[in-house]
Please model this.
Amino acid sequence: MPKKIQTNVLQLEGEIDLHVSLRAMIENKPQVLVVDLAKTTYLDSSGLAVLIEGMQNVQQYGGKFALANVQESVQHIFDIARLDQVFQIFPDVDSALAAK
Model:
C-alpha cells in the first residue's frame, strides 16, 4: 500500500520578518511542508533566514520543503540572493504538493 503523505500548508500574510516561526509545524515532522506566499507582500533578510532555517530543519529529518505562490515583488528578492536556485518554488500549492 502506498504510504500516506502527511501534508502541511502554511499560509503567510503581509510582511514576513523575524516574528514568523515555522517551528510549531516543523515539530510535527510533516513529510511535506509547503509555505504559501500568495499574500506575502514583503520579505526581509530575517524572513529569508527563517525560511532557510525551516528548509534545513525539514531536510534534516528527510522531509520536503517547498514555497508556493511567490509574488513578483518577493520573487525578486529570491532572484537577487540566488535563493531561487536553493528553494523549490512552485506556481501554486497544488503543484508543490504534487511534485516528487
